[in-house]
Amino acid sequence: MRRLLAASGRCAPATRTHHGLFARAIQILAPPDPVSLHKLSAPDCGIVELRLERPEVKNAINWEAMRLLRGVVEKVEADDTVKVVLVTSSVPGVFCAGADLKALSIPTIAVIEGAALGGGLELALSCDLRICGENATLGLPETGLAIIPGAGGTQRLPRIVGRSRAKEMIFTGRRCNATEAVMMGLANYCVPAGEAHEKALELAREIAQKGPLGIRMAKKAIDQGMQAADMPSALAVEGECYEQLLHTEDRLEGLAAFAERRKPVYSGK
C-alpha cells in the first residue's frame, strides 16, 4: 500500500504538468476571435483599431463574427475615451466580405488594401472615410449572381458617388481600382500599396486632436441632415446639434485655448 501511495504521489505532479501542457496546446490551437479591438497607446490615445481576422475565409462575416462585431461596436460606442476607429484587416490582400458600422457616433476610417468586393465594399461604405492602397479593388458584383447588394450598397453608394455612377457599378458589377475610386469620390485617398494604414492613422491623429463632442455632433449633423426631406429641415438638424455644444466644458476650453494661444485639452464634457 505504501508503495502504491508513493507511486501515486510521484505521478501527481506529472499529471498536473500534462494537464497544463494540454491546456496551453488548446489555447494555441484555438482560432483567434474573428473580430478584435485594439486600443493604441500614447501618443495615439483615443484611437482604436477594429481588426478583422478570418484568413481562412478571406474575412467573410458569418453569424458568430457578426455577433462579435455588434458587441465590439457597442463597446466602442459606450467608451467616451474613443475618438476615432480604424477598420483594418489582418489578412493580406483582403479587406472584408460583409458587415456594418453605421451605428457608431464617432468617425470611422476604412483601411483598404486589396479586395473590397460585395459586403466588403458595403462595410467600407458604412465608414465615414476610406483610404485605399493602390492595389485595392472595389465593386458590388451581386447582380452577376442574380441578387442585389443587401447590406446597404444600393442606398449608400448613390449617396456617395451619385445615382448614375452607382447604377452603372451595380448594374454591370464592374470593379474599379483605387485611382478610379478617388476620382469618383468613393475613396478619400489612394496611397502606395501597404501604406493605407499609415495614411489612415495620420488622419485619425488629426481628428483625435479636435473636440470629441464637436466631432460627434458634426457627424450627426451631416448624416441626419443628408436624410432630411429639404434644406430647412437639414438646417434645423444642424441648429439642434450646434445648440447641444454651447454649454459644454470643451467649448469653454476651446475659447480659452484660442485666447491664450495654447493647445486645447479637451475632456469630452
TrEMBL record:
InterPro entries: ClpP/crotonase-like_dom_sf, Enoyl-CoA_hyd/isom_CS, Enoyl-CoA_hydra/iso, Enoyl-CoA_hydra_C. Keywords: Lyase. One of its GO terms (cellular component) is mitochondrion. GO terms for biological process: fatty acid beta-oxidation. Pfam families: ECH_1. It comes from the Eukaryota. GO terms for molecular function: hydro-lyase activity. PANTHER family: ENOYL-COA HYDRATASE-RELATED, OS02G0654000 PROTEIN. Belongs to the enoyl-CoA hydratase/isomerase family. This is Enoyl-CoA hydratase. It comes from Oryza barthii.
